[in-house]
Amino acid sequence: MRLGFVTNSYRDDIALATVEQARAYRIAVQRNDIAQTILTEMGFDVIVTSDIEKSYQLLVTNKIDFVIDDKRLIKNMAKELNLPEDQFKFALPVPELFVKGYLAANKDLPEEQYQALLSAYQYISKSAVYSEVLHLN
């Protein structure tokens, strides 16, 4: 995931060129999320919410200026909240919050199940939908 600052699309008054500039704004993060840990370590004063939907609700009501999310997920969040797809915009990536995801499994997973998971991943990773979701094209 390539996480960064997300704000309301109509917020033309916000133009971030650097992560440091975001210190002047109110930022919501989820409790025990990587964004809470990293941004706090970087000295940011953050507002902690119970989940991403709560963070977005604060954004929609202008109680905060930014949430932290992946650019590829903001249209879906707008749909979930019954808002226009273009309600939010990705303002700036935060390189310290780039995360590579892994699938974890029990080390005693039977070989047959391991092979089934591997085969399913290989099949899905070659699909157009996979590329579209990850914006590989």
TrEMBL record:
<protein>
    <submittedName>
        <fullName>Transporter substrate-binding domain-containing protein</fullName>
    </submittedName>
</protein>
<keyword id="KW-0614">Plasmid</keyword>
